[in-house]
Specification:
heterodimer, A: mainly alpha, two-stranded antiparallel ribbon, two-stranded antiparallel sheet, 10 helices, B: about 270 residues, alpha+beta, Immunoglobulin-like, 2 domains, four-stranded antiparallel β-sheet, 7 helices
Chain lengths: ~300, ~270
């Protein structure tokens, strides 16, 4: 059954959209990553114009993360204080990111910059996580090994403005989450995604948050970032297709519920291993796309009607 | 030579009536349409009369494309060619090339007047019924679109970009892969079917019918066709265009409510 999308100006099969939304929702539920990195290319693949795909996936992300946060919140897995501190940095970061985006665009090759950033960032993160979780797996199977400390102490714990994050069992400087929020904000403005992909590993490894609290808290701040992007896109580019977003959402919420149920059954280290694999897969795909001979070296953009 | 200049004279009349349609599209094309019939065909005494089964393609929520039949009659022997074109758009074509192992957008070229949709049909292969100069003058065929290139690019390079543009438009089903068939029923009656894909751009289209004799255009008629969104789709599109801030806010709120509703059943579970 086909449905006509009024802003994208194409007809697509409703069940394809629902399935796509469902698959991405599943990832959201398990890992707390928004899945924007996945929705956008898939939408482009089924014929939605790239600009509409970027803007509408931000719109669907709002809904998906609201439902995700509510689910995690009922289990007590959201650190609101941490979320708000991250958001302060996030808003400042996205403002800076928009400025940087305009600058890069004027210099040309913004897309290339984005892809290269992604490959380096995700490749490094993925490899680190992979190594760590493989070690964790090995340690588990060896009896008699002493339990690790909750987290290692390093230079980050010497920073000022310390605050207690009860839910995350942390006593750290607020500068850390603000800085992290800022960096993620910059990336989400440039890459046009929620930034969960950078946020989640950073929360686990940089801040040392317990894995269970990470998805809910990450999603909390994604709500605001995605809402901001949706408003800006609707106002400046008029590329938000609300019908498309709504259909994706219907599939997405079903997927997210299955995902979050599945996520709680997994152990922390298994979750991290899966996440590491996914991060590496995305990095590999992007690197591959950059170097492989394109099917058609030409592409077209409609400037004006 | 003399025939070519004569055809140009007639051509300007036909084209004059085209611009009439374009200018009057906002005021309603009914009166203009009537004027067209008076202006174009009978002036030469070579008549072609044609009409479409529908002058409106309504894009509803369940729209999957549409086909419109063009039918008509000619008053003497000859061939018929039909062109349907959507409103012009400005399109930029970018070319990737390999730099240090990575594919990078390197060159680009902008075309000012690319038809958003193009369809062509003829009763016989175009090169058999019309001279290349006349076909080029009337923009008959994908190769004769007379695309306006912007910026200074060497001609050979420009041609590569034109080919790429046509290829991309064909892939989007907005340009035809080949010339469709105009079928004759008996000696005088003809018909052809114009297929519109689901991604057909909205706007006022022009459907031109050419009567061709001795490799030259001797008569013609232009009929408008409106492609428009109707129903909920049109409302959404309208709101997004007129009140973008409000539309954005509604889109965010709708998504939030949908997300909240979706999480509700967990309470009872």
């Amino acid at each position: 059954m086909d449905i006509y999308l009024p802003i994208a100006e194409v007809s697509v099969d409703v069940f394809v959209l629902l399935g796509l939304g469902g698959a991405v929702g599943f990832l959201t539920g398990v890992f707390g990553v928004g899945g924007g990195f996945l929705v956008t290319p898939l939408l482009i693949f089924i014929g939605v114009p790239p600009t509409v795909a970027v803007a509408s996936s931000a719109n669907q992300l709002v809904g998906a993360s609201v439902s995700g946060v509510l689910v995690h919140w009922r289990r007590g897995n959201v650190d609101f204080k941490m979320g708000y501190v991250l958001l302060v940095g996030g808003l400042a970061g996205s403002a800076f990111g928009v400025w940087l985006f305009t600058l890069l665009k004027r210099l040309g090759q913004i897309e290339l910059t984005i892809s290269l950033c992604y490959v380096v960032l995700l490749g490094t993160l993925g490899t680190l996580m992979m190594v760590e979780s493989v070690y964790a797996q090995l340690r588990r199977h060896r009896p008699g090994v002493r339990r690790r400390k909750l987290h290692q102490h390093n230079w980050m714990h010497g920073l000022p403005l310390k605050a207690r994050f009860r839910r995350s069992k942390l006593y750290i400087s607020t500068l850390l989450p603000i800085g992290l929020g800022f960096v993620v904000g910059v990336f989400s403005a440039i890459l046009g995604v929620g930034g969960g992909f950078i946020m989640v590993p950073a929360m686990i490894y940089m801040l040392g948050m317990p894995t269970a609290v990470v998805p809910g808290t990450s999603l909390l701040q994604i709500i605001f970032v995605a809402a901001n992007v949706t408003l800006l896109q609707a106002y400046t580019n008029r590329t938000v297709d609300a019908v498309l977003a709504l259909v994706l959402l219907v599939g997405g919420v079903i997927g997210a519920r299955i995902g979050s149920r599945f996520g709680t059954r997994l152990r922390g280290d298994q979750l991290r291993l899966l996440l590491a694999l996914m991060v590496l897969a995305v990095a590999a795909k992007l690197a591959f796309d950059l170097t492989v001979h394109p099917a058609d070296p030409y592409s077209i953009v409609v400037d004006k009607t | 030579m003399s025939r070519s200049s004569a055809s140009r004279g007639r051509g300007s009349q036909i084209l004059g009536s085209l611009s009439c349609t374009l200018m009057d599209q906002a005021k309603g094309w009914g009166s203009c349409f009537a004027a067209l019939i008076l202006l174009s065909a009978p002036a030469h005494g070579e008549a072609v009369v044609a009409d479409l089964t529908s002058h409106l393609i309504a894009i509803t929520t369940g729209f999957t494309g549409a086909s419109v039949v063009l039918f008509g009659a000619i008053d003497g022997p000859g061939d018929v060619a039909v062109v349907a074109r959507g409103p012009d758009r400005e399109i930029t074509v970018r070319q990737k090339s390999r730099i240090a192992g990575i594919w990078v957008n390197s060159r680009e070229m902008t075309f000012a007047n690319v038809p958003s949709f193009y369809f062509v049909a003829a009763s016989r292969p175009l090169d058999e019924i019309i001279s290349p100069a006349t076909a080029a003058f009337y923009r008959l065929g994908v190769g004769n679109l007379q695309l306006k290139r912007e910026g200074a690019v060497p001609p050979q390079v420009g041609d590569e970009f034109v080919t790429a543009l046509v290829r991309q438009q064909q892939r989007a089903r907005l340009f035809p892969d080949s010339v469709s068939k105009v079928d004759f029923v008996g000696e005088r009656l003809f018909r052809t079917t114009i297929e519109f894909p689901s991604n057909v751009p909205v706007g006022t289209y022009l459907v031109q019918v050419f009567l061709i004799r001795d490799k030259d255009v001797v008569g013609g008629q232009t009929t408008p066709l409106v492609v428009s969104k109707v129903g909920i789709g049109a409302d959404v599109f309208g709101l997004a265009g007129r009140r973008p801030a409000l539309y954005g806010a509604i889109a965010v709120l709708t998504a939030m409510v949908a997300g909240w509703l979706a999480s509700l059943p967990f309470r009872s579970a």
